[in-house]
């Protein structure tokens, strides 16, 4: 769970960085799907390889607030792969805007 939570946090920061770069007011949220939707409408669409990012949202809520739900587990390698893809996407989105 710890790996998924920190991966969720890294991905959230990447999405928020792209939004802020484009002058979009960044909401205080842990909802990765909501951030991805906001990116798509206001900044840059995420690649299809990151379509399931919302699967990490419950892990951030667990880590920060201690709330638990029945979220299915996410394999460590999958979560880390998503984090690497999110970093690459954010770098491309930020470089392409210059």
What's the gist of this structure?
The chain has four helices and no strands. It is mostly helical and 98 residues long. Helix 1 runs parallel beside helix 2 (32-42), helix 1 crosses helix 3 and helix 1 (2-21) runs parallel beside helix 4 (76-96).
Structure, explained:
- The structure is a single chain.
- The protein is mainly alpha-helical.
- The longest helix is centred in the last third of the chain and has 21 residues, at 76-96.
- Helices cover 62% and strands 0% of the residues.
- The model has no long low-confidence stretch (mean pLDDT 79).
Q: Measure the end-to-end span.
A: 37 Å
- General form: globular
Q: How is the main sheet built?
A: none
Let me know the average pLDDT: 79
Which stretches are low in confidence, meaning pLDDT under 50 for 5 or more residues running?
A: none
Q: What number of structural domains do the residues give?
A: 1
The percent of residues in helical segments reads 55-70%
Structural class: mainly alpha
Radius of gyration: 13 Å
**Continuous helix count:** 4
In oligomeric terms, what are we looking at?
Answer: single chain
List the helices and strands in order: HHHH
DSSP, total strands: 0
**Roughly what fraction of the amino acids lie in strands?**
under 5%
């Amino acid at each position: 769970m710890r790996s998924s939570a920190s991966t969720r946090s890294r991905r959230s920061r990447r999405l928020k960085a792209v939004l802020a770069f484009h002058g979009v007011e960044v909401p205080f949220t842990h909802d990765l799907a909501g951030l991805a939707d906001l990116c798509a409408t206001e900044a840059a669409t995420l690649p299809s390889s990151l379509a399931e990012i919302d699967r990490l949202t419950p892990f951030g809520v667990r880590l920060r607030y201690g709330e638990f739900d029945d979220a299915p587990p996410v394999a460590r390698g999958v979560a880390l792969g998503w984090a690497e893809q999110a970093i690459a996407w954010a770098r491309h989105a930020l470089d392409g805007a210059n």
